[in-house]
């Protein structure tokens, strides 16, 4: 139960945080991301029909080069808690930062064939050694990050488009997108190394932590334990079939060799993550929107919460997933809705769930969640390139996962030593993306998190204040 002190903290700081961001938004607002926007670094395939342009421009690029750099600084206030476990969010004030630099290089090889290559550098320091939250506060943080810059190949992939007729669509130049022409009826094959949110659940308003919401629970389905290494990238293939306002996507990608590990298991026929997504673009009046439904099935060498509890029974030891590893399967689904309400306001809503009797393997410890938010642009305030967004997420755990944590088990991110009083982990986030000049954006961000680690005894709330600087060419 929330104490009087905690209530006073919430009343004192939350209004100030929301008013601060709201004043920025409505004093000098905001550009909502548009479904007509060209593809960027988070949108790895040619856009859906609603994202293309039937324009007179039919030019096609042979090659392009783009780059981005993003710096995020965050400060967490201290909060009161009756106890702290081995993998709890620290109750003391902390700061965290990340910096990334990415180069996007693309070349047209032949008709419909495009090759992309993205070297990347990252450095960062997480809050509490990345423990204590399932809804982690910064989508740029990596599981194997560190305070020394590390370079790697984020993406390398071939995209082949087979045009099948229909309306002509022209797509503008952008990161991981050559300016070119496509048919509204087409089949697209992507092979190589990507992150799955390049192709699946490419939400217009909540997909990219470099320009939109930062929290992990906002950038995609929380319960989607999508195949990825510790940096969120994987290797595999996907096919996308576009037919006017319908899109069907299917893919298979490599799982890591161990939970949250850096090395992918190349035996993709034995261990893999499979996805299928159906999308329908629509209009209500003249306002675009869409609905997506995603299903996923993972197969990995992972531990079962029930098996871990049973193995520890009567031994005096806490359950340990690493003692009960075996070939295991996990399935789940997600539903996503987005809609423009006017020329300057858009909304999104997501829900997802998974049968997480098997440990989280590649994303985060969320078994079911619901999130939604609003994005507003500042055209009416003469700030058409700015964006104000506010969103809420509520995440939960399945019974077996709760019992494992209650018995003192440690997960990939969580482990307070006990879980006597379970509560859903809830996040309220607001950001304001201030466009300084072309290619340069400054974004204050505020988050309030209740029940960190699903622990109502350590309710908080936890307040995190951030600033993001983003540059792109």
TrEMBL record:
Protein family membership: Belongs to the OprB family.
Taxonomic source organism: Dyella psychrodurans
GO molecular function ontology, one term from the record: porin activity
Residues making up the signal peptide according to the UniProt record: 1-32
Protein name: Carbohydrate porin
Region described as Disordered: spans on this chain: 37-61
Record key words, sorted: Signal
Keyword set includes Cell wall biogenesis/degradation: no
InterPro entries per record: Carb-sel_porin_OprB (IPR007049), OprB_sf (IPR038673)
Gene Ontology CC terms, in alphabetical order: membrane
Superkingdom of origin: Bacteria
One of the GO biological process terms: carbohydrate transport
Keyword Mitochondrion: no
């Amino acid at each position: 139960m929330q104490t009087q002190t905690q209530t006073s903290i919430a009343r004192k700081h939350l209004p100030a945080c929301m008013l601060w961001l709201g004043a920025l938004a409505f004093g000098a607002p905001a550009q909502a991301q548009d479904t007509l926007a060209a593809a960027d670094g988070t949108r790895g395939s040619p856009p859906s029909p609603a994202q293309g342009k039937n324009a007179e421009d039919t030019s096609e690029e042979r090659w392009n080069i783009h780059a981005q750099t993003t710096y995020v600084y965050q400060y967490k206030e201290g909060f009161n808690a009756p106890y702290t476990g081995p993998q709890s969010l620290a109750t003391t004030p902390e700061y965290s930062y990340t910096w990334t630099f990415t180069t996007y290089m693309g070349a047209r090889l032949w008709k419909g064939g495009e090759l992309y290559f993205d070297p990347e550098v990252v450095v960062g320091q997480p809050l509490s050694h990345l423990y204590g939250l399932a809804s982690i506060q910064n989508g740029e943080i990596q599981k194997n990050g560190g305070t020394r810059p590390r370079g790697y190949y984020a993406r390398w992939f071939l995209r082949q488009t087979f045009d099948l007729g229909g309306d002509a669509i022209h797509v503008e130049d952008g990161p991981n997108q050559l300016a070119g022409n496509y048919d509204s009826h087409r089949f697209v094959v992507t092979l190589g190394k990507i992150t799955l949110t390049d192709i699946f659940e490419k939400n217009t308003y909540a997909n990219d932590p470099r320009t939109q919401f930062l929290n992990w629970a906002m950038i995609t389905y929380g319960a989607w334990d999508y195949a990825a290494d510790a940096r969120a990238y994987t290797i595999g293939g996907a096919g996308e079939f576009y037919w006017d306002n319908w899109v069907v996507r299917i893919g298979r990608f490599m799982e890591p060799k161990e939970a949250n590990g850096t090395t992918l298991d190349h035996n993709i026929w034995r261990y893999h993550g499979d996805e299928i997504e159906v999308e329908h673009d629509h209009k209500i009046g003249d306002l675009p929107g869409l609905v997506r439904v995603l299903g996923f099935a993972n197969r990995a060498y992972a531990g079962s919460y029930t098996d871990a509890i049973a193995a520890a029974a009567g031994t005096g030891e806490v359950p340990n997933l690493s003692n009960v590893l075996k070939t295991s399967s996990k399935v789940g689904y997600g539903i996503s809705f987005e809609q423009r309400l006017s020329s300057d306001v858009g909304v999104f809503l997501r829900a997802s769930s998974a049968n997480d009797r098997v440990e989280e393997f590649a994303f985060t410890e969320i078994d079911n969640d619901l999130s939604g938010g609003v994005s507003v642009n500042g055209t009416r305030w003469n700030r058409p390139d700015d964006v104000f967004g506010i969103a809420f997420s509520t995440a939960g755990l399945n019974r077996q996962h709760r019992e494992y944590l209650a018995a003192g088990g440690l997960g990939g991110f969580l482990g307070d030593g006990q879980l006597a009083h379970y509560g859903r982990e809830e996040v309220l986030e607001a950001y304001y993306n201030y466009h300084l000049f072309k290619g340069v954006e400054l974004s204050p961000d505020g988050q309030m998190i209740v029940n960190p680690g699903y622990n109502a005894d350590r309710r908080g709330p936890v307040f995190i204040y951030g600033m993001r600087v983003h540059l792109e060419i």
